[in-house]
Amino acid sequence: TGGMWKWGCSGVGTGAPTAANACSSPFATQTLTLTATPSSIAVGGTSSISASSTSNLPPTVTLDTTADCTLSTPAGSTTVTATVTGVNATGSCTVRASSTVSADGCVSCYQAATPAMQAITITKADQTITFGVAPTTVVVDGTGTVSATASSNLTVTFGTAPNLICEVSGSGTVTGRKAGTCTVTGDQAGNGNFND
Question: Which tens digits make up the pLDDT trace of 143-158?
Answer without folding.
Answer: 999 999 999 999 999 9
